């Protein structure tokens, strides 16, 4: 299926089943909010209210040339008239962010998936510490709005390399959010840099931590929290640059419904092998962070390398993320 990033009103409409999964929205505002980061406001062309979302939600975005990418909604969830995306032009872009930066102009109609939430606020009655690193501020900003609206106890710490890369400062540093927020610059004075251990030392032990950003930033926050005894079930994260490790030995993959067998070699994912053989596999992020390619396991034990399933779901071995996982057994049989 080919997905276009520019869709005119005269183009054929999606079929009924496909249309139910997508919203065709209009880019009503496009503005640069930081170095290499553009914010897009999307609204219903007829002015209808958009489906409700909760902080932490993301949407699929059709970015052109068959690409679908995931981006967090970063506006106040109380808003029903718009969805806002903040999208970084990734220097390592596999095509998605580059196509959106180049092509999503004001007035364009674009296809956006229904909001999905894999990174929700667990309990607004508990104190929260929010950590956003770089473009990871997007879901964290929506969380700050939701927590402020609920009258919850929270603090937001936004970490960026330098001032030119700090997005949405007008929103973070003014109005109702300002008393809760602090920005940390890597190139700034030592006393204003992020000190996770110090923050946690003075925090209520019931506090939930929410962290989003590059993998290194998340690892730093997680490791510091664990070092001072923070429970894993109070540390919640979402990564924007999950690395895919496809190392390991070959294994046999049996696609039960297709009646075909394949050898998956080191360095290739099951999804790549299946797609090369002409078997239709739904893929999107190709990093194990969206869940599009989850498939039921009928036999064998997956080597789970995704970030979408919980530890309990992985332990059950009921599903495998075909874009990034491998097998711990010589044979893996899947329902495909």
Summarize the structure.
Residues 249-336 form the 2Fe-2S ferredoxin-type domain. By secondary structure, the protein is of the alpha/beta class. Helices cover 18% and strands 31% of the residues.
How does this model look, in words?
- The protein is an alpha/beta fold and 336 residues long.
- 18% of the residues lie in helices and 31% in strands.
- The protein has three domains: 16-117, Translation factors (Elongation Factor Tu (Ef-tu), domain 3, Beta Barrel), CATH 2.40.30; 128-239, Rossmann fold; 251-334, Beta-grasp domain (Ubiquitin-like (UB roll)).
- The strands form five sheets. A five-stranded parallel beta sheet has the order 10-9-8-11-12, with helices on both faces. A five-stranded mixed beta sheet has the order 14-13-19-15-17. A four-stranded antiparallel beta sheet has the order 5-2-1-6, covered by helices on one side.
- Strand 13 and strand 14 form a beta hairpin.
- The chain is globular.
User: Might you state the CATH topology name of the largest domain?
Assistant: Rossmann fold
Oligomer: single chain
Instruction: Just name the CATH architecture of the largest domain.
Output: 3-Layer(aba) Sandwich
* Beta fraction: 25-35%
**Percent helix:** 10-25%
Outline type = globular
What's the CATH class label of the largest domain?
A: Alpha Beta
Would you report the number of β strands? 19
EC number: 1.14.13.82
GO molecular function: 2 iron, 2 sulfur cluster binding; metal ion binding; methyltransferase activity; vanillate monooxygenase activity
Pfam families: Fer2
Domain 2Fe-2S ferredoxin-type: 249-336
């Amino acid at each position: 299926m080919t997905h276009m990033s520019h869709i005119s009103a005269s183009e054929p409409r999606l079929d009924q089943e496909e249309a139910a999964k997508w919203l065709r929205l209009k880019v009503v505002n496009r503005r640069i909010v930081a170095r290499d980061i553009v914010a897009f406001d999307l609204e219903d062309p007829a002015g209808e209210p958009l489906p409700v979302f909760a902080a932490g939600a993301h949407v699929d975005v059709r970015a052109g040339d068959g690409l679908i990418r995931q981006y967090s909604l970063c506006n106040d969830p109380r808003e029903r008239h718009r969805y806002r995306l903040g999208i970084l032009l990734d220097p390592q872009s596999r095509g998605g962010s580059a196509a959106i930066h180049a092509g999503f102009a004001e007035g364009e109609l674009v296809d956006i998936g229904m909001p999905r939430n894999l990174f929700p606020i667990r309990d607004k009655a508990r104190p929260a510490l929010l950590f956003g690193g770089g473009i990871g501020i997007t879901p964290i900003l929506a969380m700050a709005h939701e927590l402020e609206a609920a009258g919850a106890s929270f603090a937001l710490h936004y970490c960026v390399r330098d001032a030119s890369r700090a997005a949405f400062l007008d929103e973070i540093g003014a109005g109702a959010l300002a008393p809760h927020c602090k920005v940390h610059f890597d190139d700034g004075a030592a006393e204003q840099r992020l000190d996770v251990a110090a923050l946690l030392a003075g925090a209520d032990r019931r506090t939930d931590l929410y962290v989003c950003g590059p993998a290194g930033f998340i690892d730093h926050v997680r490791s510091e929290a664990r070092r001072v005894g923070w429970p894993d079930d109070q540390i919640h994260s979402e990564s924007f640059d999950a690395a895919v490790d496809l190392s390991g030995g070959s294994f046999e993959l049996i696609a039960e419904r297709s009646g075909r067998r394949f050898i998956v070699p080191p360095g290739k994912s099951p999804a790549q092998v299946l797609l090369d053989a002409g078997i239709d596999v739904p893929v999107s992020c190709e990093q194990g962070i969206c869940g599009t390619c989850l498939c039921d396991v009928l036999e064998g034990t997956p080597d789970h390398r995704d970030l979408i399933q919980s530890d309990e779901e992985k332990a059950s071995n009921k599903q495998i993320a075909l874009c990034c996982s491998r097998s711990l057994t010589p044979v893996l049989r899947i329902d495909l």
